[in-house]
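Notebook B, p. 112. Complex prediction, attempt 2.
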Amino acid sequence: MTGNSNIILITVDSLRYDTIFSDEAVSAPTIEQLIEEGLTFKRAYANGTSTGMSFPSIFSGMYPWDYYGSYYSPDRPHLIEEFKNTNYGTAAFHSNPHLSASFGYDRGFDIFSEGSDSPSTVSKLRKKAGNNIPKDSILYDVLRKAWKNLEKATGTGVGTPYVDGTELNEYVFDWLESASAPVFGWVHYMDVHHPYLPHKNTVSHDIGEKEAIRLRQKFIHSPDDLVNSEIEILRQLYRGEVEYFDRCLNSLLSKVQSELGFDNTVLILVSDHGEAFGENDNYGHGGDALGDEVTRVPLIIRGPNIEPSKVESPVSCVDIYPTITDIRGESAPSKCRGKSLLAVDENERQEKDEKQYVFAHANAPSDGQAMICDGRRKLIHDRGENTDTLYDLCDGQEKERINYRADHVKDLVDEIETHISSIKSSDDSAIQPDIDDEMKNKLRDLGYID
Ligand SMILES: [Zn+2]
């Protein structure tokens, strides 16, 4: 790496690993090409089961329970601060309320675009404020306040609460057209996240919008009442969203190529968690379920001097921060818990039979669930119940193992105990952001809170 590479971090909300890596993979030619040309981690895990739990790991290189997970605590290392005092321009584009400035995600970004509820004057105003006006000008402040108030007044539209990938791309394209290298850009797509809407020219094209909305309500509010045929339609809608996202990704990559070129640009594609459709009696994501359908994610890195390869060793999202510092020829802060993914030597690990463990957390540290996985076995420790559940992972299937001998999994038990004792803070009430009524309403509309 040159130390001055452009870095584009592309995150996809709720993208399951097996929609990409399995016999039943969705038709996603852009992602397929990235897999062929990139360093692909076939067994990558998110460290949390929801956006709020997972993203602190991506942006801080620490686990969700470190400083408690549902908020991007200022005590965590901060990826964007790595770009302070450098010549990098930094920009973020997303529309997930869990990643909003209210939760601290805007820290350090030159441009932080949180999307809009409709492609209205609000977003146009914001784009102008963000891109064309010096940030220290009074006009910038006035415009910022204006679009914040306007946004407040517009509320959240039921059915399409997020910015669609095509519209999100427009914001990114505007930025790319005026950006000067090197840049760090973060683009977070919500299309694959529910509500799943039918899209033309995808597997979901003949499902009616009304039906999609009806099933969305059931999926969120009474999933246990879903019958198999409805689950199949939801899966089909979900797969259609993945196909649609793949097209948005294609447009983004074309624009990155034309504006920045690929000779000095690193792309990182990852998801923050998967999505359940009844596996382990779970629907959606979040909560206490740590099954592969929710924790396993696609993770691909493509760039100059990065040898295309497919890695089977387990890795996780805490490794993304040290990877980005490694790309820049820097070291990650000592607080970071992950390792650079560019340093993974699959052959060496196999020769040494070296064990690699990954961890994930669900719910609060005091009585939540911690997962350890070595790629073949997964142990889930419930801190509230003080129980362990063991799963074998083989042929893409997760199977609970009953009556196992504790001494056969001693390494997992020892490692997870060491991991839990290393958690930086277990105080559940330690840090909670102030969520105002507007944010509460938004989260309620999206089905996050009752
Ligand atoms: Zn998410």
